[in-house]
Amino acid sequence: MAIAQKYPLGTPKPSDLLVGTSIPDPNTNDDPKTVNFPVSGISTLVAAEVPQGPAGPAGADGAPGANGTNGTNGTNGTNGVDGADGAPGANGADGADGQDGAQGPAGADGTSIKILGTVANCAGLPTSGNTIGDVYILDVDEPGCSYGAGLAGDGYTWTAGNTWLNIGPLRGPQGIQGTAGTNGTNGTNGTDGAPGATGPAGADGVDGVDGTNGTDGAPGAIGPQGPQGIQGPTGPAGGVTSVTAATNIVVSPTVGDVVVSAPDSVVNTTDVYTGTPRVENVISLTQAEYDAATIDANTLYVII
User: Fold this and answer.
1) pLDDT(203) > 90
2) Would you kindly state where each structural domain of the chain is located, as residue ranges?
3) pLDDT tens, 98-113?
4) Which of the listed residues 12, 27, 136, 260 has the most CB atoms within 10 Å of its CB?
5) Which residues contact 143 (CB under 8 A, 6 or more apart)?
6) What pLDDT digit, counting tens, does each position of 113-131 carry?
7) Which candidate, 260, 259, 254, places its Cα nearest to that of 241?
């Protein structure tokens, strides 16, 4: 907020200068500048923006005109014949008094302003209920004000055009600096407050990274040797290149990794009695496996 100060009244002259803000032309990148304006320029602007008030009262009568100059004296008469003196010439008449000067035109009424307060920004300027000459002072710099860029302390006055006009800063000269205040004494330290209540438990932390794999344990002791298996007949030398199926033997496929199944490889062909079962399969199993198995009448079970 600008500080308004009171100064003695004086009579302005056309050459006196006022401090104001110059608004750059539209569509330019120039910034507003603080410049001096002559009173003559401001009076011309105010006359253009503010309508002329009603005619003032008639001025006082002008002072009486100056007296006219005296008429010139008449010339002396010529001497009479034979030395007789002629009669003296009569004095010329006095000149008439001068006419009173015509009354000058009445001067135009001056425009008064009324400072109503401050506004925080350009948007705070009221748009209705205003009177010509109302003035508000801008609190902050606002170069983008729609009524003209303004600086803190600039005054905006309501004109006859029903709009606001920036009339520049309304501030007096800077006052003298006041004396420095003395430093205050340091305050004493306050006592510690009571401990606060325990806060709620925090959220669970994120899972830790997986631990590294443990080292391999030492090899276990060698188990006891199992029973020796029955040695089968020696096979022919060389590798198998193909397998040919035979009676009761199924081969699939016949080359490469083959699978041989012989569900009827053991067949009892000596039983000739009617109704007597014949052995079609031979299975070796443990006692526990036999107890749990479903017994087939055509299978020979060998418990080992």
Assistant:
1) no
2) 17-49+109-169, 250-303
3) 666 677 676 555 567 8
4) 136
5) 31, 32, 149, 150
6) 889 899 999 989 998 899 9
7) 254
